[in-house]
Amino acid sequence: MTEAELTKEATTDGRPVIDGRQFRNVLGQFCTGITVITTFDDEGGERAPIGFACQSFAALSLDPPLVLFCPTKESRSWKAIERNGSFAVNMLAEEQQPVCARFGSREPDKFAGIDWQTSELDLPVLDGALATIQCTVDNVLDGGDHYIVIGRVQALSESTDSGRPLLFYRGQYTAIEPEKTTPAPWRADLEHFLTTTTLDTWL
């Protein structure tokens, strides 16, 4: 790939100008899971659950246990999380496409028609999720037009069902093929690699 294919022009300080559409298309090649980030909002004196669909979620650290997600700076849900100081990450299952669509919409009450309950840590968690991670906000960093929110894990739970995750790829939903749910023959080698890494090993 030539430099011309990567950028069409440069700014006055020599930094490349990246085309927004191309940026989205290229990053769309990276398949991600889909989560719904939730919390309670007490603004206005009326307590209500609030949340949004989020692809930009990742594990960050084992010791201490940290995760991160990246909301837009204008996100109403993020403002509620910031006020509350805690949030839950709900990892969606393959059959929860309607849930994702609901939380990715502009509907004022995204929890309407959604099955959920209040957790032991007083956070709204979605029924049917593959796993739930409950966190307190540990740190917030600037990330351009987003924030990078680092959460310290306080509790974990996972579904007893052997469900498959809801995935997003090239701008549309996708899923693991049924025959791909059995462990690959190289699974033992991968687990060995993950448990024997050193400080200079790239992961």
- Note poorly predicted spans: none
Instruction: Assign a percent range to the helix content.
Output: 10-25%
Strand content: 25-35%
Output the structural class.
alpha+beta
| Largest sheet data | 7 strands, antiparallel
Radius of gyration (Å): 19 Å
Number of strands: 12
Spatially, the strands of the biggest sheet line up as 3-2-6-9-10-5-4
Terminal Cα span: 26 Å
How does the overall form come out from the CA principal axes?
globular
Helical segment tally?
5
Q: What do the pLDDT scores average to? A: 84
Order of helices and strands: HHEEEEEHEHEEEEEEH
Characterization of this structure:
The chain contains 5 helices and 12 strands. The protein has helices at 3-6, 20-27, 76-84, 97-103, 187-195, and strands spanning 32-33, 35-41, 48-54, 57-61, 66-69, 86-91, 116-118, 124-126, 131-143, 146-158, 167-169, 172-174. It is an alpha+beta fold and 203 residues long.
Name some characteristics of this structure.
203 residues; alpha+beta; 7-stranded antiparallel sheet; 3-stranded antiparallel sheet; 5 helices
Question: Secondary-structure map with pairings?
Answer:
Layout: H1 3-6, H2 20-27, E1 32-33, E2 35-41, E3 48-54, E4 57-61, E5 66-69, H3 76-84, E6 86-91, H4 97-103, E7 116-118, E8 124-126, E9 131-143, E10 146-158, E11 167-169, E12 172-174, H5 187-195
